[in-house]
Amino acid sequence: MRKQSIFAGGCALLISLLLATTISASGVMSASSLRITILENDVTYEYEYDNPHHYEYEEGHQVVRGEEAKQKVMELLTLIKLNENSKIEDIVRELKQHHPDVEKVDIRYMNDDNKLFTWVWHDE
């Protein structure tokens, strides 16, 4: 009985964490636009979204659009947990999990009220 309770509690916690991540990423998707540019080892990565359904991912000179680009954008947003109150230091710390040698970050996020939020970071 106790094992079932622990298992059920663990499952509930896991589900709530997954839902919180999804809500966080989908909250940004109600925005007008999003541009995230990352420079790492002389390669530029660009993650882009324009409301309602345009996604684009660039790695160097390779450009991907559509569902594959959407997956890349959503993965990055889930990683960095971007919101209007995010701190660039927190974003960079999370980014380093996926881009460990990040040299520069530039994020432009326009919310559904057309208010622009900007974060910029350069490695020292």
Brief sketch in words of this structure:
By secondary structure, this protein is an alpha+beta fold. The protein has helices at 2-28, 67-80, 88-95; strands spanning 33-40, 43-50, 54-59, 62-65, 102-110, 116-122. The protein has a six-stranded antiparallel β-sheet, covered by helices on one side.
The assigned structural class equals: alpha+beta
Strand content: 25-35%
Low-confidence stretches: 7-24
DSSP strand count: 6
**Largest sheet descriptor:** 6 strands, antiparallel
The total tally of domains equals 1
Relative helix content: 25-40%
Determine the N-to-C terminus distance: 55 Å
Q: Shape from CA axes?
A: globular
Mean pLDDT: 83
The sequence of SSEs as H and E is: HEEEEHHEE
Number of helices: 3
Strand order of the largest sheet: 4-3-2-1-5-6
**Radius of gyration, CA atoms, in whole angstroms:** 17 Å
What can you tell me about this protein's structure?
The protein is α+β, with helices and mostly antiparallel strands. The protein has one domain (2-122). It contains 3 helices and 6 strands. β5 and β6 form a beta hairpin.
